[in-house]
Amino acid sequence: xxxxxxxxxxxxxxxxxxxxxxxxxxxxxxxxxxxxxxxxxxxxxxxxxxxxxxxxxxxxxxxxxxxxxxxxxxxxxxxxxxxxxxxxxxxxxxxxxxxxxxxxxxxx
Length: 108
Fold this sequence. Notes:
alpha+beta; elongated; 23% helix
């Protein structure tokens, strides 16, 4: 479980650093509110088994940037989901950040 948490922390830190680096590069461009500048997914593996997936999207508009992320994990009967939304102004200042988590254990 410690390895899983370390990989999760590393993946989240990598995504945050990527967002902070890429957003200023697009801050001066004029774009429509629906202009997605990047999107993708990261897989978290335990050996050869995928145990989690994070899907993200970065949209650029005249009012700033919006970054959304969904993280889903499943290890045996344990499931966890987390989603977040980060809004930045055109000068890359924090406008709003929201996050939610959901965790469940299935009983058989």
